[in-house]
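Obj: model holo form, ligand = iron/sulfur cluster.
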Amino acid sequence: MSGIYIHIPFCRQACYYCDFHFSVSWKRKDDFVQALLKEIELQKNFLANEKISSVYFGGGTPSILSADELKKILFTLSKYHSIADDAEMTLEANPDDLTKEKIKDIGETGINRLSIGIQSFSDEDLKFMNRVHDSKQAIESVKSAQDAGFRNITIDLIYGTPTLADEQWVKNLEQAFALDVPHLSCYALTVETQTALAQFIKKGKVAPVDEAKAAAQFEILMKRSSQKGFEQYEVSNFAKAQMYSRHNSSYWRNEKYLGLGPSAHSYNGVSRQWNVANNHLYIEAINKGSVPFEEEILTAVQKYNEYVLTSLRTRWGCDVMKIKNEFGEKFGEYFSKTADDFIRQQWMENRDRVYVLTHKGKFFADRISSDLFYSED
Ligand code: SF4
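Output (holo structure tokens):
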């Protein structure tokens, strides 16, 4: 089973912390949709007849597309791919786009899962991030989606911002629980170099991220979500009743995927490729009949490092036998030897040669995986 990711590279305004590829100019939106339909055809053989178990519209802001555009894209996908009847079809949506009418239209396209970019239920916090919506729209968008029959809803929240006190973070979580959604994705604010936020911090307009505060809010998140019956199946992802994101789980489990649209990445088990992150260059190249991408054939070291990075963050953990069988004996030995230190510190557990992070270890997930990375040097 494989997944398809579709990148919609337009937003209404730039959130200060964001370093995804998007444009706030929509002049070429129609040209982009035409190019995307063409790319679906050009890339039809990438997954070589694999059954598709998930389709994910990400961005950018996919909810700016009309229902007709979504239908056209999904119809074209179904012409060239065998999509499972029960495939998970996710649309990332911003609350300000989710009017009752729009939600009803989305429900008629085949989309069966909404990922709503709420980020915070505090207006002060939303202003700090330069989000378009306010907290009232955030709450209404979820309720309207539920009224329209959507059950598979996830919401994104960000913690660790300078404007988010612990008390407000608790309120944000309580609000999310009260909305009764089965899935949450919660990320600590990170400062990427090319963003407005990085500039504000450099100029002293905004305080640098307080890591101790982010860690305290991560602890609150793990405790409260567990009390409410959520399973932390990935460091930043929480699900009730095993309503895991099928699409993201397939990334974490090293399954193949095709990425369409500017900046989208694809992986076929052997190589990884990524489309140009420029709307104009993307549209022009596709119009001339070629997909503008760069490609990298993955070495055993890269495959091992990627497997460690993604699997260790999940409930399924990092399997030493898989490492030995798929990447080579030396990687398995290196992993076990390095992991011993983390087991002594009680950051990891060895469950019959499958290594998983402990509660304490989840605070240091990135550091642990980078120490477990293999280098030829
Ligand atoms: S809406 Fe999403 S993609 Fe667009 S700028 Fe904000 S965070 Fe980035």
